[in-house]
Amino acid sequence: MAWSWDVVAGPLSPDEKHRRREAIDLHANIAHVSALAVAAIAGLVMLLLRLRPCPPPVYAQVPTSPVAKARRTRFRRFDAHHLLSRIRWWLGDDLGGGAGRRHEWIVGLVWAGWLLALCVRDTGSDFLHLTKRMGAVAVSQLPVLYLVSLKAFGSSHEVVKRLHAVLGRLVGLLLLLHVVCYNYFFVVAGIWPRRLLDLIVVYGVVAFVLLLALGVSATASVRRASYRLFIRVHLVVALLVPLLVFFHAPPVRLYLVEAFLALIVDLFVRKLRSVNVPSTLVFLPDANLVAVEATVPPRISRALSDSPAAYVYLSLPQPRGAFDFLHNPFTVASSDDQRGTLTLVARVRNGPVTRTLARLASSSSSSSRKHTLIIDGPYGSVARRLIARHPARVLLIAGGIGATFILPIHRFLREHLPEARLRLIWAVRQPADTTWATEADLVPEDAQLFVTAGSLPPNDDAIEMRPLPSSGSTISNHHLHRGRPDLDTVVDAVFRQGHEDPVAVLVCGPAGLAADVRRRVRPWVIQGRDAWWHSESFGC
């Protein structure tokens, strides 16, 4: 296809410039409204799913009964439900290398195609029209980009993170094309770099540099090095970019006002929801863990009783009463309705929050280990969605500190789905890594614990932790196994029992563990088994 745009065309008349502006505004508005419509529909579906009553449990036939045999015969035939299950599984596969999941790419490519079509449509041969259109369409997505990250929706931290990342990359791509095309136009027109010194262009250049800094801070290596830095850069860029673009491109100011208001309202609501809670800190040096027991208001206790394995945002009080919007998410390992307390357990990393908590908890004085912390939440929980599925069998696998998510789910299922057959696998490096759970009697009797010390390479950061002498362990040897769990045997044992039984598999731990489990579940899904999958990763 030949290049159809004139980079430097003749001067436009006032009417032509007006029509160009109208076309840019029209297509930007279409992009804006379509994004809001999709977000509204998705939000409505999530609300309906959350409010729908749980279906009654399905009667489990005796395996040798004629009804069960007939269902197994149908199981072997073509079934549209099984086909949809296989498609859903295929869409949820991770592409590896940190590229994300397949459905994220499909949704992202479809939406990118839609936005690019709006950028190109009816631009004719006007290259400057195309360039301006890409910038306007990109900015039109900012309100939705801010909305999907709002904590007020109560979405899972994982869901928010993924949706926000997909749309953020698309906005960044369009803005990059906008900048590249404008610079190309300046070069061809012979006004580069003089034009870059104009104040209106400087606003745009600074905004783009901030977006580049945001992209760098969002890389996995930077997040691992300092999650706090990533959050701080995110917040600074989210506050400054709308202001800079507000002066850079007056025609798109409405979108910027919407985005800025969404951010401010979210921060304000989170400040109102956040509470200062008296907390007791305990540091487990040999396991490199810090435990926080906080006394919380009744509303948080009630919410946690209905939403096990939810997460809260934790931050440290700031001097002079300033509010710190930079919370770190932590899964609630347990809660006590009668005492009005919740317990958080975190691995000490390089970030300032966990390091500060460990320092405060290491004090020799018991009184000095009591501090006031700020908690916002709880948010997000998969428990209700899991109960609505009424699985007959549930496989729960935790790696290291991932048990803070798995153990509350197990307790909730025992109470609300007593007929389900549960199997819990917990892999740790040393028995000391389970101290926080065993001392609080949180580990069920039927749990299988695997100690992997000596079976992993020294540099493996998956579930390896520093050792504690075995005398510090309170685990019964009856449930303690040496070495890694045989995931093939574990998964096959769950799926081989009852072809007609719906199965749920939940994993919380490092990405490698989740990938291994999913790889072993896939053959059963391909065969047509009804499997519900959820993977929760910890850390950044």
From TrEMBL:
Keywords: Cell membrane, Electron transport, Glycoprotein, Ion transport, Membrane, Oxidoreductase, Transmembrane, Transmembrane helix, Transport. GO terms for molecular function: ferric-chelate reductase (NADPH) activity. This is ferric-chelate reductase (NADPH). It holds the Pfam family FAD_binding_8. Its main location: membrane. The chain crosses the membrane at residues 30-49, 166-187, 199-222, 229-246. SUPFAM superfamilies: Ferredoxin reductase-like, C-terminal NADP-linked domain (SSF52343), Riboflavin synthase domain-like (SSF63380). It is an enzyme of class 1 (oxidoreductase). Belongs to the ferric reductase (FRE) family. It comes from Ophiocordyceps polyrhachis-furcata BCC 54312. It is found in: Cell membrane. The keyword Zinc does not apply. It catalyses: 2 a Fe(II)-siderophore + NADP(+) + H(+) = 2 a Fe(III)-siderophore + NADPH. The keyword Transmembrane helix applies.
